[in-house]
TrEMBL record:
Pfam families: Epimerase (PF01370). It comes from Paractinoplanes lichenicola. Residues 3-77 form the NAD-dependent epimerase/dehydratase domain. This is NAD-dependent epimerase/dehydratase family protein. SUPFAM superfamilies: NAD(P)-binding Rossmann-fold domains (SSF51735). InterPro entries: Epimerase_deHydtase, NAD(P)-bd_dom_sf, NAD(P)-dependent_oxidoreduct. Gene3D superfamilies: NAD(P)-binding Rossmann-like Domain.
C-alpha cells in the first residue's frame, strides 16, 4: 500500500513512517524544509515538498496514494484558532471517497466526569471536517504521547518545574490523564490504515487513568525538586488549562477492533528513565 503522511518528520509522524516502512508499505511524506526532506529520503520515503498552507501540495501528495495519514499541525499555542482553521482546510483538501483518510485529534473536547469512550462524539472534532462521502478514520490521542525526545504536555510540565523550582499539581491533583507511548501510537495508526473501517473512532490510549499528582511526583523525583499543589493554572503556562480536565479514556473497543496491544514503556517509567530530564540536568 502507498501511504502519504503529513507531519512525516514530527514526533508521532516520524515513528509512523518508520512503522509503515517496516511493515512493507511505500511511504511518501510532506516536507517543508531541506532538513525534513533529507530525513525522509534517508529512510527510503518519497519526498513531497510543501506545507500545511499549500493545499495544492497536499493534493499532489495524496493523489497517487492508496491511503492518507494527516498528522501535521502548526502547534502554535498562541493561536489555537489559526491552528484549527489550517487543519480544517488541510483535511478538506486531503479527503477523497476513494481512499481512507486517517486524521488525528485530542481528547480535550470530550472531557467529562467518566472515562471517554470511542462512541463519544466531538461535534467540533476533526472527524467533522472531511465532508460528505469521505472515508475518514479518526485516531484520538491521549494528552501525553510520551517517550525519549517528547516535546508535548509533560515536557511543558517539566519545564515549569525547572523554571519555578517546584514540581506542581493543580488543586488536589486527583484529575486523571490517559497516556500512550509514541511507538504504540504509531503502530495504531498503521493498523488503522490497514484495516479500520470508514467512520471508525480509535483511541491511542495505553494507560487509562493517571492522577496528575502522580505525574508531578514522578517529575519531582526525576528532577530532584519538591512537589506541591498550586491553585492557579497560569503557574504551568498554557498547559495549565488541560490539567483541570478529566482526560481519562478507554481504548477497549479500539483493541477489540484492531487487535492493538500496547507494549511500550509506561509514562512513569519514561519519566524515571530521564525522558524529561534528570537530577542535575
Amino acid at each position: 500500500m502507498h501511504v502519504f503522511v503529513t507531519g512525516a518528520t514530527g514526533w508521532i509522524g516520524s515513528a509512523t513512517v518508520d512503522d509503515l516502512l517496516a511493515a512493507g508499505h511505500k511511504v511518501s511524506g510532506l516536507a517543508r524544509s531541506d532538513t525534513s526532506a533529507a530525513a525522509l529520503a534517508a529512510k527510503g520515503a518519497v519526498v513531497v515538498r510543501g506545507d500545511l498552507d499549500d493545499l495544492a501540495s497536499l493534493r499532489r501528495g495524496a493523489e497517487p496514494a492508496d491511503a492518507v495519514v494527516h498528522l501535521a499541525n502548526k502547534h502554535d499555542w498562541a493561536d489555537p484558532e489559526g491552528n484549527d482553521r489550517a487543519d480544517r482546510a488541510a483535511i478538506g483538501a486531503l479527503a477523497d471517497p476513494d481512499r481512507p483518510l486517517v486524521v488525528v485529534d485530542g481528547l480535550s473536547g470530550l472531557a467529562r466526569d467518566r472515562p471517554i469512550v470511542e462512541d463519544d462524539v466531538d461535534p467540533h472534532g476533526n472527524e467533522q471536517h472531511a465532508g460528505p462521502g469521505a472515508r475518514t478514520i479518526v485516531v484520538r490521542f491521549a494528552p501525553t504521547v510520551h517517550g525519549m525526545g517528547d516535546w508535548g504536555f509533560v515536557t511543558f510540565l517539566a519545564d515549569a518545574a525547572r523554571r519555578t523550582g517546584v514540581s506542581a499539581f493543580l488543586g488536589d491533583g486527583s484529575t486523571p490523564w490517559s497516556a500512550v507511548h509514541r511507538g504504540d501510537a504509531a503502530r495504531l495508526i498503521r493498523l488503522a490504515v490497514e484495516g479500520a473501517p470508514a467512520g471508525a473512532r480509535l483511541h491511542a490510549v495505553a494507560e487509562e487513568s493517571i492522577p496528575t499528582r502522580t505525574i508531578a511526583e514522578a517529575l519531582g523525583r526525576a528532577l530532584n525538586l519538591p512537589v506541591a499543589p498550586v491553585a492557579d493554572p497560569a503557574h504551568f503556562g498554557f498547559v495549565g488549562g488541560f490539567l483541570a480536565l478529566n482526560l481519562s479514556a478507554s481504548s477497549a473497543r479500539t483493541r477489540d477492533l484492531l487487535g492493538w496491544q500496547p507494549t511500550g514503556p509506561a509514562l512513569l517509567d519514561d519519566i524515571a528513565a530521564g525522558a524529561y530530564g534528570r537530577i542535575g540536568a
